[in-house]
Amino acid sequence: MGTTAPHIICGGLIALDLELSVSSYPVAGAKHKAQASRLVGGGGALNAAAAIARLGGQVTLYGAIGDDDLAPVMRARIQALGVPLDQVHGVAGAVTPHSAVLIEADGDRTIINARDDQLAANLPPLPHPFGYDGALVDTRFPQITTTLLAAARAAGKPAVIDAEAPVRLVQDALCHASHIAFSVQGLTDYTGRADADALAQVARHFNVWACVTRGPDPVLCHDGKAAYAIPVPVVVAQNTNGAGDTWHGAFTLALAAGQDEMGAVRAANSAAARHVAGQTDSLAPLGA
Ligand SMILES: Nc1ncnc2c1ncn2[C@@H]1O[C@H](COP(=O)(O)OP(=O)(O)OP(=O)(O)O)[C@@H](O)[C@H]1O
Ligand SMILES: [Mg+2]
Question: Is the C-alpha dihedral spanning 179, 185, 189, 194 positive or negative?
Fold first, then answer.
């Protein structure tokens, strides 16, 4: 990346993840001992912002946390990930979003997230004009999804949505995206299935580039006219928590740096594979 690295704004969920490594999925009603635990920065927007910072991009994280006991820990984790705090807004009386994340031996993750859906309702507006090289939003706070995508699109910059379920809550935002990147869960939620036909339908309907990431399986893409698939590097998965978010951050950064979609998907696959294989040093251990 050159001297002026692209500046991406990531809007959406900022959360604290308590990751518990377990040898197998818990048995209902039983007690279990974790093999390891970590308290880490999480949530789609923060994970993506951290990936962008790690990849040498400039990043602004736009979202809301609470003013509770978790808030100072959350802020410290964000800073430790190299992500600036200036557009992370504390909301009086609100609880900072947090998640319990079970990591199984094969790296698979199961997440339970606690958040107040109204947390981002009163965020201060972003300065005009849009001063970034691209925008990435998740679906967690519909109030900011449309605003960010529309602002980026009006400025002629990549406007990427990480289309996770429930996608219908941000239905009105989709037409503002330049790139719609689904997870399997997101495309299934939106169309009833997660295959190439469903993806083609969405890409043609919105006349945009769309894709669906599918864990270790090739990423299915459609540019509004034709479909193609891009394979994912084979790695031994250690932890898939945040893989999709890392993917979306790297994808948006690569687009903003001028790569075409194929190049950006390859860059994103590579960054996400390294994340899944545990080849990043950005996750602070519990108590750090
Ligand atoms: N086991 C894996 N091996 C290699 N790459 C992986 C693996 N799992 C995920 N990835 C990479 O991460 C990308 C996104 O993964 P996935 O589709 O599972 O995200 P997701 O369902 O949105 O999950 P989340 O957002 O919670 O991380 C994949 O396209 C791939 O590039
Ligand atoms: Mg995802």
Answer: positive
